Amino acid sequence: MQKKLKLLLIEDSLDDAELLIRQIEKSGYELEYSRVETEKQLMNSLECEDWDFVISDYSLPNFTGLSAINIIKQLGIDIPIIIVSGAIGEDIAVEAMKAGAHDYIMKDNLARLSPAIERELREVQVREERRQAVNSLRESEQKYHNLFDQSPVGVFIVNKDLVITESNKRAADIFLTNLERLIGSDIRELVDKSLISLINQAFKGKSSQKDIHYRSEFDQDDTWLYCCVSPLKDSGKKVTDVMGVLEDITQRKHAEQGIQKLNINLEKRVELRTHELTSTNLKLISEINHRKEAEKKLKSSLREKEVLLKEVHHRVKNNLQLISSMIGLQRDGLEDSNSLYMLEESERRIQSIALIHEHLYSSEDFEHINFSDYISLLVENLYSSFQIYPGHIETKMELEEFNLDIDKAVPCSLIINELISNSLKHAFPLKPLKSSKSNNIIDIKARMLKNTDIQITISDNGVGFPKDIDYKNTNTLGMQLVCSLVDQLHGTIKLSSKSGTKFSINFH
Known about the structure:
- The protein folds into three domains: 3-143, 3-Layer(aba) Sandwich (Rossmann fold), CATH 3.40.50; 151-248, 2-Layer Sandwich (Beta-Lactamase); 367-507, Heat Shock Protein 90 (2-Layer Sandwich).
- Helices cover 51% and strands 21% of the residues.
- It has helices spanning 14-26, 39-48, 65-75, 90-99, 113-150, 169-174, 179-182, 193-203, 250-332, 337-361, 371-385, 406-427, 477-488, and strands at 3-10, 29-36, 53-57, 81-85, 103-106, 154-158, 164-167, 208-214, 223-233, 239-248, 368-370, 394-399, 403-405, 441-448, 454-460, 492-496, 501-507.
- Helix 10 packs antiparallel against helix 12.
- The longest helix is centred in the middle third of the chain and has 83 residues, at 250-332.
- The mean pLDDT is 83.
């Protein structure tokens, strides 16, 4: 892989420049270069672009290689420069090296050029790494000094003579003096023997901490200090100094003393209240036992109620089935078509109510019924009752999940029973053969609206509701029953006969 090199060439001879370029490229460099031959061109190139290397002829018509070296030095650019010349004396070469040239090469010995370039590029990299390391060290030292000076706790360093050699302002504030006076002071003049003992232990290599009392000669108020001392070691792991950290904990100590007093008072109060609570607890235990006993009786009563409700729904369902069977027996003996029709209608209505009670006694919830499931069963029973052949009428159902209590479920079931029965009886007068299919459709939808109203829609694509009949003022029992039940639900009913018959019932 070729090495990239960005070269600035100071050369007035185009032939010599091409010779240098070929020599460098022959050494495996991918070269990007620019040739200048005047001082102004050199200044512009150095100011506008960054270069990896500069090669300069020693003598040019307008200026010399030494001038180029001085310009680079004045701009403060760390870039290697090699002087290349056809005829240069040793004294001039020495002068160029003293001026700042990194090497000089004769044009008849260009084999030295590539090794010299590689050597100087390595030197540039070393200088850059050293410069970065120095900058990093300087930044680190500055951060340390900032941290040391701005620390919220006092920090000081003492030598083996127990003289403070370094300190931050917070430590001076704690000792109620200024930083200039503190540095150089004997620590033994500022603190009691307990801290001096910790410092002596630190010089033996042991870190320790302690809360100490401190009283300044300038301020007779007691001050509590948290002190932590640690040994500082040189590269040979020998302890040379000790660092101390001080934190003023006077407020905390006063708070602890206040808490101790409060705890004593609290213990006395607790003892008094414990005696009072003991008698109160005995009363509460007695009351809790009474409530638990009442709860047991209530649960027992609820279980009995559940059994009773299940039995009631079961018996109502059985009684309705018995009535339905009796009507069926009565119907079998009739020949009058009108009477027969009325009995069949009554039987279907009774079966729709019985189906609700069957749902309730087989459910864990005896007060509510899943009405979407109920509608599906009701439709199945009606189709069976009317002996609808498969393919004669297609049923589409879109039923959302919602529950109804028995007070709403019974009238709602009778309404659906009547409207579906009407569609089955009157919407499709022409019945196809058993083996054929038709386009007859009954569509049943039940959903809960945003305002929590229930909407039930029953429609068909049959012959439509007779236009000369007012469904709200008809003498037919079925529609009278539907309108009466809608009023009982405090709901509304609408009829549309544009393409077939569509009834929409809304109730809360």
